[in-house]
Design a protein that fits this description.
globular; 9 strands; three-stranded parallel sheet; alpha/beta; four-stranded parallel sheet; 2 domains; single chain; Rossmann fold; 18% strand; 242 residues; 41% helix
């Protein structure tokens, strides 16, 4: 998400919350997920005027709680992955229409009807199903070694689902990190990343300020040093922690 925003010259001064204390969030209860939504809203208001919920699980819960109007409080703008998903469907309607679409996400994301409903509203001829790939999310989020076609996290059930899939939506923020690997394993599938459509939902920004990122890591699942090392390599920018 951040990489696509920076490519568009947006969110140059950003704070990234790597909230590992709640991972895997997609297996938590509705009440627990709601608590995280409220915590993110409160914490982001202390450091920014804009919150981008770059997590599909939290985005869906946020939408369920507050609807299309959202809840701002001290924030001036909240953009969720549900918003990005809707923008993606609108822009890619011609490619999605009539296709077998598989939405791949966490257990929570796959169990909710929001994303299939968004597709049905715009492309009623599309055939939409969902798949929970929690183990794949856990491995990528923890920077686990990826073994491509032989990786055990690509379960038999996922491989069978992909056999009848024409378009796969990477409905977990981690999955685009291995998009090229997935495309190599499933060459006949078109992969779409909702996060890539987030820049179109943000106002253009003036100025040529260098990109700046601060990182906050919670929990003990992954070290702060690992997150910063990866982010610096992936984004090509020096990072400070907060």
């Amino acid at each position: 998400m951040l990489k696509s925003l920076w490519h568009a010259g947006i969110a140059k001064d950003a704070v990234f919350l790597a909230d590992y204390a709640i991972n895997p969030l997609g297996l938590k209860s509705d009440a627990e997920i709601t608590g995280v939504v409220e915590r993110w809203l409160a914490q982001s208001a202390k450091v920014s005027d804009t919150l981008i919920i770059a997590c599909n699980t939290l985005s869906i819960r946020y939408h369920q709680l507050y609807g299309s109007e959202g809840r701002l409080g001290r924030l001036t703008r909240v953009v969720s992955m549900a918003d990005c998903f809707a923008a993606m469907v609108e822009q890619e309607a011609d490619r999605i229409a009539g296709k077998n679409v598989l939405v791949i996400g966490t257990e929570f994301t796959a169990s909710q009807s929001l994303y299939p409903e968004i597709v049905a509203q715009v492309c009623p001829s599309a055939h939409v199903s969902t798949f929970a790939a929690t183990e794949l999310e856990r491995k990528i989020a923890r920077f686990g070694a990826w073994e491509g076609a032989t990786d055990a996290t690509l379960t038999g059930a996922l491989r069978r689902a992909m056999e009848v899939t024409e378009i796969a939506v990477l409905a977990c923020t981690c999955f685009p990190l291995v998009r090229k690997d997935l495309e190599a394993v499933f060459p006949n599938v078109l992969f779409l990343d909702p996060g890539a459509y987030g820049a179109g939902l943000m106002p253009k920004q003036a100025g040529t300020t260098d990109n700046r990122l601060r990182v906050k890591v919670t929990g003990q699942e992954v070290s702060e040093a690992s997150v910063i090392e990866f982010a610096e390599s992936y984004l090509g920018v020096s990072i400070c922690c907060i």
